[in-house]
Amino acid sequence: MVPAESETGLRPSDDSGTVLLNRCRTYWQMAEWEKLGELAGEDLERYRERGRLAVLAAAGLAQLGEMERAREYALRAQEWGCNRAVLAQVLVGGAYNSLGRAASLLEDEDLAGQLFEQSVACVLPQDDAAVLGRSRNIQEKMRLGQLPDAMRSIGRELRHDPAPDHVRILDGQLARLERRIEELTPRPRTLPTILKNTARGTDRMPEAPLLVCGHHKVGTNFLLPVFREISETFSLPIWLKFYDPEPPRWKICLHQHSRLEGMTMPANFRGVHMVRHPMGLLHSATLYHERGKEPWLNVPMQRFTGETFWAVSSRDSYNVIKNPKRSMQSKIDQLTAPPPPHARIHDFDSGYDFAGRTYAEMLRSFDTLEEKILFEMRCYSRAVLLDMLAFPADRRFMTVKLEDVTHDRAMQTLQPLVRHLGFGGEPAAQVLKIAAKNSQWNKGKTAHATTGVSSGWKDLFRGELGDAFHELFGWAEEALGYD
């Protein structure tokens, strides 16, 4: 919002310098001190608005630590007719901004927020000060190198359903933050170099059994081919727990639903548990289930409950439902059969009356994507998220995020994981080569990889859908390590 002349004195006239002054006022609001400092290289005297421009130049130079030049431009502002009250407002606002930066460095978040807000309030109305003060807080954190804090602040602002103008400001700050992070991130080495350097280490093979745990729409399309090939390459017997009964001996156990109950856990295992941002998972699962070909999606139902999820995600039911020789009634009976006593069942009822429709038909019956995601959130993927959140906190498991692995050309996530699993030297290089071959950045998007781990879900969860998510799952994204 542009403040009135009576509020700040910085309202531009229609004379020469108006366009520049408008632009510089925006720089001041957004704490773009470098841009304001560049005014010192301009011939300001030729502008009718030279007094106000000199004030803004002084403010920028002061924040950049160039105090002598800042004083010079403050004096010029007075000489060129700038109102003393306006000069005082802007310079006092700058002092509050400097104090806010100091509080931020001392990690006093509450005080920093108050000081940045006050730095804006010295010049702008209180209505603008609250929003712009928070935006300035984020901007200064980026300037101070507090990039994780800046990212968290942006996330907090977006979670509170900000006004459209504020969203545009935050989107701009997010883009600048991403550029800054990219600038600070070392250029990744090429894959051949990574493999060559890895192979120089001491050759090592896992001594402990490996447990590989994923969830539906959480990287199983990556984990399955990778660990199958690892099994073949190193002659490590693999047990695909979802598909097959337990063999007499195994060295790798892979389970798409991360159900560890009912199996004897070796004491010395090493494991990986893959997670995904829960909102991204819901978006991806919704699109996939609407047109997917998994057999259970096309079996008529009456309700979807925790018991239904157990049935559609268990090996016995899967083998019945996928069998084209079995009657539809036998498949319906399989989904409604009581689970065995040892089964861990999530106690919920989705609240939807299927009335004999299939899961895919129910999804297609809704008009909007938001309605479809809400349905998915209360049905199948509700249990998937509950499983992910309930996964045991065990240091023998290394938790990795699907988002980190998907674009990991530099192997910054995969290299530590391979070491954790017990591979070293040439075997580790072979595992990384297998992983690279099956990574999405190398293969492109597959039919199963519905959204390619995109961020297209973010806008969908602002507002009512986000409220519904947090009502069901609390702040599940933070529990899983996402800001």
Annotation keywords:
single chain, Rossmann fold, 3 domains, Serine Threonine Protein Phosphatase 5, Tetratricopeptide repeat, 483 residues, mainly alpha
Description of the molecule:
With 483 residues, the chain is mostly helical. It has three domains: 5-141, Alpha Horseshoe (Serine Threonine Protein Phosphatase 5, Tetratricopeptide repeat), CATH 1.25.40; 192-277 and 387-479, P-loop containing nucleotide triphosphate hydrolases (Rossmann fold, 3-Layer(aba) Sandwich), CATH 3.40.50; 291-375, no CATH class. The protein has 25 helices and five strands. It has a five-stranded parallel β-sheet. The longest helix has 22 residues, at 84-105. The two termini are 30 Å apart. Mean pLDDT is 81; it is low at 1-14 and 446-452.
What percentage of residues falls in helices of 4 or more residues? 55-70%
N-end to C-end Cα span: 30 Å
What is the radius of gyration computed over CA atoms, rounded to a whole number of angstroms?
29 Å
Number of domains: 3
Question: How many β-strands, per DSSP?
Answer: 5
CATH superfamily of the largest domain: P-loop containing nucleotide triphosphate hydrolases
Do you know the CATH topology of the largest domain? Rossmann fold
Instruction: Flag low-confidence runs.
Output: 1-14, 446-452
CATH architecture type of the largest domain: 3-Layer(aba) Sandwich
Question: How many alpha or pi helices?
Answer: 25
Order the strands across the largest sheet as they lie in space. 2-3-1-4-5
Order of helices and strands: HHHHHHHHHHHEHEEEHHHHHHHEHHHHHH
Largest β sheet strand count, sense and barrel closure: 5 strands, parallel
> What is the CATH class of the largest domain?
Alpha Beta
Classify the beta-strand content into a percent band. Answer: under 5%
What structural class do helix, strand and pairing data support? Answer: mainly alpha
Kindly state the mean pLDDT as a whole number? 81
